[in-house]
Design a protein that fits this description.
Elements lengths: L2 H22 L3 H13 L1 H10 L11 H5 L7 E5 L3 H7 L5 E3 L5 H4 L4 H8 L9 E5 L4 H12 L5 E3 L3 H9 L5
Parallel strand pairs: 1-2, 1-3, 3-4
Helix pairs in contact: 1-2, 1-3
């Protein structure tokens, strides 16, 4: 990471921190200013996510990286929402579904059984795997589960369906 990027990330963190403090205050004018500031942050926030790690050291990926997945077939996107959620709202292109409650068992299946159940080749322990859900919490849990099972190249799309839907103009909830 070059010095410009470090400076940008540091400045973004300070702005977000100040914005959070202002949002919690009871002063209406400051709250308005804070909301205006937050509206200006998303593009920098996406960059920040690209360079950061989430909880327990799981790397975080950006909307831009997920958007580019059709051009990167070596990266695997797993949606851990429930099947009903996919039917209701849709799914991110290139993703396939393994509900969170099945992730641990699924990643321990034989390659043949995995493919028969999920219609996709089972990820290898060192494959680039990205988990996503609706808000980023279940995908964090799935990422941690995979890491505990020995998967070494696990990532979490923290923005998950919420960010995807917002940026793609799709229904969220």
């Amino acid at each position: 990471m070059n010095s410009f990027t470090r400076c940008s990330v540091s400045l973004t963190r300070r702005i977000v921190s100040c914005s959070n403090i202002l949002l919690k205050s009871n002063v209406a004018p400051l709250r308005h200013q804070s909301l205006q500031l937050r509206k200006q942050i998303p593009s920098v926030g996406s960059t920040l996510r690209f360079f950061s790690t989430g909880t327990n050291g799981i790397p975080v990926v950006s909307y831009e990286e997920v958007k580019n997945l059709p051009n990167e077939p070596n990266k695997i996107l797993i949606d851990v929402r429930e099947p009903e959620e996919l039917k209701e709202f849709g799914q991110i292109p290139t993703s396939f579904n393994i509900p969170l409650g099945e992730v641990e068992k699924a990643l321990q299946l034989s390659d043949d059984k995995f493919k028969a159940l999920y219609g996709h080749s089972k990820p290898k322990q060192d494959d680039y795997v990205i988990f996503h859900c609706k808000l980023g919490r279940r995908s964090q849990t799935a990422s941690e589960t995979a890491a505990k099972l020995g998967y070494t190249n696990i990532h979490n799309y923290v923005g998950s369906w919420k960010e995807w839907a917002e940026k793609e103009g799709l229904p969220f909830a």
